[in-house]
From TrEMBL, chain A:
Residue ranges constituting the ABC transmembrane type-1 domain according to the UniProt record: 21-210
Highest taxon in the source lineage: Bacteria
Name this protein carries in UniProt: Amino acid ABC transporter membrane protein 1 (PAAT family)
GO biological process: amino acid transport
Topological category with respect to the lipid bilayer: Multi-pass membrane protein
Similarity section: Belongs to the binding-protein-dependent transport system permease family. HisMQ subfamily.
InterPro entries: AA_ABC_transptr_permease_3TM, ArtM/GltK/GlnP/TcyL/YhdX-like, MetI-like, MetI-like_sf
Subcellular location: Cell inner membrane; Cell membrane
Transmembrane segment boundaries: 20-47, 84-105, 147-171, 191-209
TrEMBL record, chain B:
Domain ABC transmembrane type-1 per the UniProt entry, residue ranges: 21-210
GO cellular component, one term: ATP-binding cassette (ABC) transporter complex
Source organism of this protein record: Marinomonas communis
Protein name: Amino acid ABC transporter membrane protein 2 (PAAT family)
Any one GO BP annotation for this protein: amino acid transport
Compartments where located: Cell inner membrane; Cell membrane
Listed SUPFAM superfamilies: MetI-like
Pfam families in the cross-refs: BPD_transp_1
């Protein structure tokens, strides 16, 4: 092997990588907040008795769950500006693509959780005179979040990982910066290894939390 | 709106798309088979009492589940040739990357289905004097696979979707060909939509079949 491992240039470029990491975190955290909240709304729409609500919501979920995240991102980047004549900041576009994806996956998680809530509770809400919104907010939502939490965390981790795809449409996230740094320094091994380790260092604690949550829920 | 949507031109390119789809399906199929084998072996190794074997396999699984597939692919495409000292084609690196990814997620599936097999069965094997390979192939494997089938199906759908990433290392799969045609013809809306529809037409029935298989299985083994 003629390649000498030398982390000097990669470590010198650590600032660049941190800048990228900031963008990655910004993209993922914003998408997670949007995904967790709107995912619940979409789940309610899917379960609504009105076809007008459930049909679009179901199609939305199926489309985003059954196509590669890469084509969703590329589609939104190239086609949204052309079709609607809107030109948004690349990061906003990235958040849009990632959160739509996450909303679809979270809605599925919420739906499964809501189905696990005993029907008797809904009858009790009616008996107590709660209206639809009160029932959803005070009875269904807290339990749905609790039951869906492990899956929501897992989905959050995967959107953090999927966020690396935005590098392909030239958003300057961790992945993009890593690719650039490796080309500039001719140090692919060191750079890509460091980038992978940064992703791993963030995902691992989250994975641990998710499995702990699952264990606790099983006990409860 | 100044963009005219016209899907008719797609007819001129259907054979190129078909070729791309074949590459996508080929690579998915190959990595599916390799990944299933790898995942099963890794799942068994993680149950091993040898702490080194356990640590190495656990680290492998956690690492490949904890990092983006794109960086795995790039690492193998750009770094592995430097370490090995010889070139590897983008096809080989794509297969290695996706197989390792699939192996990691599949091993988790097998692990949870192995856990679901009750301890009594292990005791029964000891009582009957069944050990080693016979135990694995005649007692554990059939049950573990049966229980794992629904999750394995959704793992396969994930693999199929992740396979679009190989376009990033220049493999001419469905995604790559779609992107190329869309930039040559300046018709991204139609082309990318068509590509998305093709992916959807394959992934949707598979995703749907997961819950169908689940119901059938629950009925069959009365879990």
């Amino acid at each position: 092997m003629s390649y000498d491992i030398d982390f000097f240039y990669t470590l010198k470029g650590i600032d660049t990588l941190m800048e990228g990491l900031l963008v990655t975190l910004q993209l993922s955290l914003t998408s997670i907040v949007i995904g967790v909240s709107l995912g619940f709304v979409v789940a309610l729409m899917v379960m609504s008795p009105s076809k007008l609500l459930s049909w679009p919501a179901t199609s939305f979920i199926e489309i985003f769950r059954c196509t590669p995240a890469l084509i969703q991102i590329v589609w939104i980047f190239y086609c949204v500006p052309m079709l609607f004549n809107v030109f948004l900041d690349p990061i906003v576009m990235g958040v849009l693509a990632l959160s739509l994806n996450l909303i679809a996956f979270n809605a599925e998680a919420y739906r499964a959780a809501i189905q696990a809530i005993p029907k008797a509770q809904l009858d009790a809400s009616v008996a107590l005179g709660l209206n639809k919104i009160q029932t959803n907010v005070y009875v269904v939502l807290p339990q749905a979040i609790r039951l869906a939490l492990p899956v929501l965390v897992t989905n959050g981790i995967s959107i953090f990982q999927q966020s690396a795809l935005v590098a392909i449409v030239a958003i300057e996230d961790l992945m993009y910066m890593g690719k650039m740094l490796s080309t500039e320094t001719y140090r692919p091994i060191e750079t890509f290894t460091v980038v992978a380790l940064i992703y791993f260092a963030i995902a691992l604690p989250a994975m641990y939390i998710s499995s702990q949550l699952e264990k606790r829920l099983k006990v409860a | 709106m100044s963009y005219n949507v016209n899907f008719l031109f797609l007819l001129d390119y259907w054979d190129a798309l078909l070729e791309g789809l074949m590459t996508t399906l080929g690579i998915t199929g190959l990595c599916l088979i390799l990944g299933l084998g790898l995942g099963f072996v890794v799942a068994l190794l993680r149950l091993s009492s040898n702490p080194v074997v356990k640590a190495v396999t656990t680290l492998y699984v956690e690492f490949f589940r904890g990092t983006p597939v794109l960086i795995q692919l790039f690492w193998i495409f750009f770094c592995l040739p430097l370490i090995l000292g010889f070139e590897i084609s983008n096809f080989v690196s794509a297969v290695i990357a996706l197989t390792l990814y699939m192996g990691a997620i599949v091993s988790e599936t097998f692990r949870s289905s192995l856990r679901a097999i009750e301890k009594d069965q292990m005791d029964a094997c000891v009582a009957l004097g069944i050990g080693g390979f016979t135990k694995i192939f005649y007692v554990i494997l059939p049950q573990a696979i049966l229980r794992a089938i629904p999750t394995l199906l959704s793992n396969s759908v994930s693999l199929f979707k992740e396979s679009a990433l190989v376009s990033a290392v220049g493999m001419s799969d469905l995604m790559y060909i779609g992107q190329n045609i869309s930039s040559v013809t300046f018709k991204p809306v139609e082309m990318l939509t068509a590509v998305a529809v093709i992916y959807f037409l394959i992934a949707f029935p598979l995703t749907r079949s997961v819950s169908w298989v689940e119901r059938k299985l629950i009925h069959k083994i009365a879990l």
